[in-house]
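Email to the structure team, subject: PD-(D/E)XK nuclease family protein model.

Hi all, the expression group asked for a predicted structure before they design truncation constructs. Nothing fancy, just the tokens so they can compare against earlier work. One-line instruction: predict PD-(D/E)XK nuclease family protein, return tokens.
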Amino acid sequence: MTPSLEAPSNSPSVIAGVIQRLSVSQLKKHKLCPRAWYFAKVLRLPEPSTGAQQVGTEGHAQLEHYLSTGEDVLGAFAKAGAHLLPTPGPDLLVEQPLDGAPPLTAGGIPFTGFIDLVDARNLATDGVLRITDHKFTSNIASNAATPEQLADANTEPGLQMVGYGAWALSQAERFPGVRELELEHLYYQTRGQRLAASVVASVPVEHIAREWRTKVEPQVEAMKTHAQAARASDVPANYGPACTKYGGCPFMAKCLTGENKTMSLRDKLLSKPSESVPTTDAAVDLPAVLPPDAPQPAPVQMAPEVAEQPAPKRRGRPRKAPEPAQATSDLRVLFVDCVPTKHDGPRPESLTGYVDDMHHKVAQAGGVDDVRFAGSDSPLGFGKWRGALAMAARVELPPPGIYTALGVAQSELMQVIVEALEPSFDVVVRGIR
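Reply from the structure team: attached below.
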């Protein structure tokens, strides 16, 4: 008998008006960092798309057309994996929606999204159903998941594939007699040599039902709670690798410096909406969370343009234009474990005040008094505070000027800040030890 994945009948009333729908991509985003999910899906802040996403979108479209019609429209990347694909035919389920009848649900919330490929050709004879997700990646050797990860909902790739497997279990009439699921990631390399590889996890249906019930359902309950938070700071943040994954979190500045702070130029650029086509998962990831107090964006006030007046004409020989030069006041200069003996211009300023300010902001965001003593239950624990502090410094550089950093070896905070700031300073002078 296929394990049941039906939710209690009274669940939808608990979430009415808060979370309308979910997607596997939302599960993955929340698993990576709950606060990033809150920014994207509750506050609905825009996220920039990347060139890699565009490559994936085009590749998915080519594969969908090929598997549905048999017409070879595969580009260079997708063609490298043609030998790993099943023979095209109408019996293959291509771009299978999750919100069919019955839809996939967790905690009473319906899911939306699409599965790239469902192959039931071995179902009647072996009781095996294969579910495939196409992955375009720059390097298969370093980025491909393992079979163990595909079967574990506590991992990012496993969370996705277990979700797809849970959908299959909800379709008992459509897939009678299914005993085993083959969860496949089919990788296509986009840099260097044209390569493709298949990674498959074969798991019994009981395993999928258990993973969904014990790992995904509790996560959805946590998402319900996080969706009702009044402020982003009330939602836990996963400082560390999540901040730099996929090219860097677009909400990093807001997360580390406070959501009420005036947006920096970098934050504005990162938050600029893109007109690029989203990836397959994101294409159906509509605004899903409707908080009761969702903020409305205020219109941007633009200063009126002033017409430039032509310069008055001068008699005689025109003056020679001065050569461009960068003003000293626009430079950032850092003296590490040394001080300048002679200087023209403003007096050097100690970096200690800036370090203390950055430390206070990160500690406040992580809910601790001192990041160095963050416990194991803190998002800054296990040394993750170093990455969070470094990113806070890169996001909010000190004003242009001359700074001194003394006693660096005796201060962990100063060490992290100095290493983070060095690439952004115009001049760095280190003392001889």
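The two ends are 73 Å apart (CA to CA). Residues 329-430 form one domain. Ping us if the truncation boundaries need rechecking.
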